[in-house]
Design the sequence.
């Protein structure tokens, strides 16, 4: 990476994370604290209404925090004053992998993030929290970019599996060999048990 690229990345990170924004993000987080659970549930309801009736129930899962598109702890981290670029990237990539496994398409993910941001703005004084809302908006955009990266990586993995299975179909010595080797290949793909 060239010096100017490193400097640009550091500048971008300083616009979203760090002590310059800590007080603003803490104030926003506190202002949303009582309403955050309701906002998240409305976002899940919004997504549920957008999904086809045959789609899996993405928003509401019997295991708290496991199947939800927007888990409370993830939203608290995104709003938090202590969030770092590295922690945000890890969180977003993990969410992207989970959302891909849940078969939540990127268009609905984008609509869901937009809905969330609108809800956040509607629940606070936008003048008082102007700086924090600007940072949050940029964090949400970066979150979408990293989740899209995870989607693309997962899709490439799926494409590789399909190619390997196609090759196996032509190379297998027997039906039993085909089944055993196919099961091993499928087990390598996250989300297949």
Sequence:
């Amino acid at each position: 990476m060239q010096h100017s690229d490193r400097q640009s990345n550091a500048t971008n990170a300083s616009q979203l994370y760090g002590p310059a924004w800590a007080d603003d993000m803490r104030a926003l987080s506190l202002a949303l604290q009582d309403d955050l659970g309701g906002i998240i549930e409305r976002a899940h309801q919004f997504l549920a209404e957008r999904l086809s009736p045959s789609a899996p129930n993405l928003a509401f899962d019997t295991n708290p925090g496991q199947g939800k598109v927007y888990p409370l702890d993830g939203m608290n981290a995104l709003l938090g004053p202590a969030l770092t670029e590295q922690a945000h990237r890890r969180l977003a990539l993990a969410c992207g992998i989970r959302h891909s496994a849940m078969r939540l398409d990127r268009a609905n993910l984008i609509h869901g993030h937009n809905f969330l941001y609108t809800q956040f703005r509607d629940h606070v004084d936008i003048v008082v929290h102007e700086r924090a809302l600007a940072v949050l908006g940029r964090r949400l955009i970066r979150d979408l970019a990293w989740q899209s990266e995870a989607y693309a990586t997962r899709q490439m993995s799926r494409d590789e599996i399909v190619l390997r299975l196609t090759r196996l179909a032509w190379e297998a010595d027997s039906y039993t060999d085909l089944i055993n080797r196919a099961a091993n290949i499928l087990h390598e793909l996250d989300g297949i048990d």
In short: The chain has eight helices and no strands. Residues 48 and 124 are 25 Å apart (CA to CA). The two ends are 39 Å apart (CA to CA). The chain has a mean pLDDT of 83.
